[in-house]
């Protein structure tokens, strides 16, 4: 009887695997039909940029669809030549030996010896080299599946059907200006999904925000309807480890609905939304306040009370800013607060704020940190401050009854600008800002935003 049960269990497991395999192939076939791909014509997907989220995104696609080699090709591009330092090589060796499945995989692929040599200092590993084995330089402690890595950008993108932008917002324009040179002979434009969070401020002809999807559009000429944004809340390593997560893909209905279905997994639910630019801007805004949250946590020895005070004030500022950016800000409340919450808990921007406040990192080290990647909140602080300082955007101060630049109602943003950009104050200034006796109740800032017509459509480039 036991034998029969074992046979039945084995049969059910195999049938379940076959069913899942068939389901994935059906999803892939459906997506290929949407794109008009014929039999024998590979669907070519490439990730551009191999930071934590870009690498995880490519690895998820590889895990799901990589087995269908006659139907889809999944690759990732990263620059060649980035050496792995000795300390990282030691950590990588420890990670490998703590995971039997990873160890066995590397031995089977005859790839283990180079990690032993790197641990001993007898050879140098490179970021593109270890990525092929499933190790992202910004996320060493979370092994991914092996990936097809390309270091030549032209080779990676010239005939891609789907391009996933995983480079930081500060590098997006430069990378896609180069890519545009390789697309001049294309007959039809690709679909681009941007994962990048961050903004630039432009002041002419009127103050407005430039987002990564807008940078891509202007750099390449790819129509706006072919460019989408995918955002959290999420932490890359947790998503790869199959922690339950949600995301939104934003853009035109033609592509966002089939993409949402194609990307959705049991543990990674992807919804779709038409409001691309606003969600993209909000993805950059929460990084600003995450840095301050990290500072407060470090300076108060993780005081729950102090962190809650900061959270109240930073969310009230974010709500105020959303009222400037969108006509219906209440629609963003849930996604924005959720994304902010997870970033404050475990994001790299909050970590950066902690390290700066503890003195373990210096501002002179820049905002690209080894083992973490680009800290996009730093440039976003400068961009939001510059934008909201413009007198042409003035709003009526409710207490003083006179026009002021919007930033005057955002004391935390002002303080972060003085700490991170102007370097006029040290991180302790963030606590002084919270303890200012003249600081308004955060509830009042929310009431101001809700009771006044602050909406400035020109900020997002709308008439």
Structural description of this entry:
The chain has 19 helices and 14 strands. By secondary structure, the protein is α/β, with parallel strands linked by helices. An eight-stranded mixed β-sheet has the order 3-2-1-4-5-8-9-10, sandwiched between helices. A two-stranded antiparallel sheet has the order 6-7. The chain has a two-stranded antiparallel ribbon with strand order 11-12. Helix 14 (333-346) crosses helix 15 (348-358).
Please tag this protein with its features.
alpha/beta, globular, 463 residues, two-stranded antiparallel sheet, 8-stranded mixed beta sheet
Question: Strands, helices and their partners?
Answer:
Blueprint: H1 2-35, E1 43-48, H2 52-65, E2 72-77, H3 86-98, H4 100-108, H5 113-120, H6 127-132, E3 148-150, H7 153-157, E4 162-165, H8 169-180, E5 191-194, E6 200-202, E7 208-210, H9 212-220, E8 227-231, H10 236-240, E9 245-250, H11 253-263, E10 268-273, H12 276-299, H13 304-325, H14 333-346, H15 348-358, E11 368-369, E12 373-374, H16 376-388, E13 395-396, E14 403-404, H17 411-420, H18 429-434, H19 442-451
